[in-house]
Amino acid sequence: MKSIVIKCGGSVMNELAPSFFDSMKNLEVAGYHLIFVHGGGPDINKMLELHQVQSEFVNGLRKTTNEVMEIVEMVLSGQANRKLATKLHHHGFKAIGMNGSDHGFLQADYINEQELGLVGEIKQVKSEWLKVMLDHQYLPVITPIAMTEKGVKLNVNADVAAASVAKAINAESCIFVTDVEGVLIDGKRANELDTVEIKQHIDSGEISGGMIPKVLSAVSALEHGLQSVMIVSGKNEFYDGSKWIGTKIKKRTEVLQ
Ligand SMILES: Nc1ncnc2c1ncn2[C@@H]1O[C@H](COP(=O)(O)OP(=O)(O)O)[C@@H](O)[C@H]1O
Ligand SMILES: CC(=O)N[C@@H](CCC(=O)OP(=O)(O)O)C(=O)O
């Protein structure tokens, strides 16, 4: 089964273009099963502000107290997942929303409870559910909330969750959909970057903020056997049936002298 995991960032979820959905149809025509993992960072920020709850980011991850977690879950499961599943349905996809925490589908451990609170890294994905859905041509739309062995719900960065799902189901590719046309270097889209160049651009500060978890998740997915990873815009077409538009992240193969 050829499958692709598509991570849709909160930055662009509310402004996905019709040509974005056409690209998804092109992927289905090319024989791919699609799985969505979504974010919702900007909407979480707005809701936290509305409720006057403070939160801060540590290395790109939201420090998550119990109070913050209630709002994270309300926004991700209650709004973002619903909005995206409905939008996909309107565009003709058989989208089914799923919470990562349901039946321990995404199993996680704390990254550092002291420093980050209820923030997880995924240890295991119960992928048999996904396979059943994909066999019946459904399109799963997954919320990045995971559960510990003891049943505690944890907030997971959506880029990291998407890469974990892609690795677990041996997807061919993982596509990060965001609000820019790819990774910008000197203000212009790089069509290709390898894993070594990625690390250099992070060190130089050219790649920063929300792009860091994306490219690091891309590198990790490639190191775990994915064939390709793309970073594309949700505001445009990203696949016309033969050619991709965005930044392709690839493994460095040759040894530098
Ligand atoms: N080199 C870069 N190229 C493109 N975007 C970058 C780069 N460095 C930092 N960014 C920032 O990363 C953002 C995308 O990450 P983020 O806001 O977390 O989006 P999402 O919600 O889609 O995950 C871009 O809008 C941009 O501001
Ligand atoms: C731990 C952590 O940082 N979780 C993220 C989950 C949502 C997310 O990743 O959304 P985007 O993809 O839109 O950034 C958060 O609370 O914002």
Automatic annotation (TrEMBL):
Native source species: Cytobacillus horneckiae
Name the record gives this protein: Acetylglutamate kinase
Keywords: Amino-acid biosynthesis, Arginine biosynthesis, ATP-binding, Cytoplasm, Kinase, Nucleotide-binding, Transferase
Function: Catalyzes the ATP-dependent phosphorylation of N-acetyl-L-glutamate.
Biological classification of the source: Bacteria, Bacillati, Bacillota, Bacilli, Bacillales
Originating gene: argB
GO MF, one example: acetylglutamate kinase activity
Compartments, as annotated in UniProt: Cytoplasm
Gene3D superfamilies listed in its UniProt record: Acetylglutamate kinase-like (3.40.1160.10)
InterPro entries in alphabetical order: AceGlu_kinase-like_sf (IPR036393), AcgluKinase_fam (IPR004662), ArgB (IPR037528), Asp/Glu/Uridylate_kinase (IPR001048)
Highest taxon listed in the record's lineage: Bacteria
Matches recorded under CDD domains: AAK_NAGK-like (cd04238)
rRNA-binding keyword on record: no
